Amino acid sequence: MSDVVKIHTAVAVAVLLGVDYKTVLNLIKRGHLRALPGLRHKLITEAELNRYLGVQPAATGTPAQTPPARPAGMESAMDKSLVSPAAKVVAFLSRSKPNGKI
Q1: What is the value of pTM for the model shown?
Q2: Helix (H), strand (E), coil (C) string for the chain
């Protein structure tokens, strides 16, 4: 019976994160941090706090599965640039020098 869930109050989460109590309440209000439903005092589970922080839970003894390697030349085609494709075209066209031919 090791299914014990650690629960923190919003005040304790604020101390752990190094922020103000109202900041934690705003995180809950905006949906970035989920509190246990139906309670007057906001309670946050350890798992939810780890999810928000991006921390992986400790290993439970099962080996982690690594994703299969991609074959050469099959890199992800997703562009993660913050510049829109239209802006890239405009920048490319402004760099090219017209040679008088159309």
Answers
A1: 0.52
A2: CCCCCCEEEHHHHHHHHCCCHHHHHHHHHCCCCCCCCCCCCCEEEHHHHHHHHCCCCCCCCCCCCCCCCCCCCCCCCCCCCCCCHHHHHHHHHHHCCCCCCC
